[in-house]
Please model this.
Amino acid sequence: MASKRRKAKLESKYQHHGTALYGKRAVAIWLLIGVLPLLVQISGNNFLPSPAWIRDVRDLAMLVGIGTGGFTVWLIVSSVSQSSSNELKKVIAVIASPVLGYCLGATVVNIAVPMVMAIVFGGPVEMAYVVDQARDADEKYCRSSVTFQGAPFPFDRVCGVSDTFRKTLQPGTNIVATGRGTKYGLFVSDLEKAK
Model:
């Protein structure tokens, strides 16, 4: 009788471990999908989601972000309770997990989906944007940038814009971006003022 109880406890322990393992794998895959756009952007490829896409999926991005944040909290709390690390690290992980989870989920919807569509189905396309700011200050990963209204950071900018063109831009200037993509977003190859 005692061996059956012990066997049941072991099975329960391994079932929980298996669930957590699948959860960790799911988060790892989701993390890869969410981080991929950042890696593409940092590597020097200027991707802009279309303003219409961002507007149309705003609610979905929020829901996916909240769901991902909640799932991340659950996963962190279940992992932290079994961890032997110090209490400060546990508290920081639990506090940071909903924010990071939300950003990750929203990035998947706002950026990863149109980016993958541009890579797989893209062709020559042009899209209209409105300048938010033309920066002459150098940033570490985005030198000589133009920032546009309506897109989430850091996918609201094009880096490496020529000084002569950038200096002609003011907030509110209408721009046409051309490049490879779909109606949901594009990899920018050229910018010009709208006529």
Remarks:
- The mean pLDDT is 80.
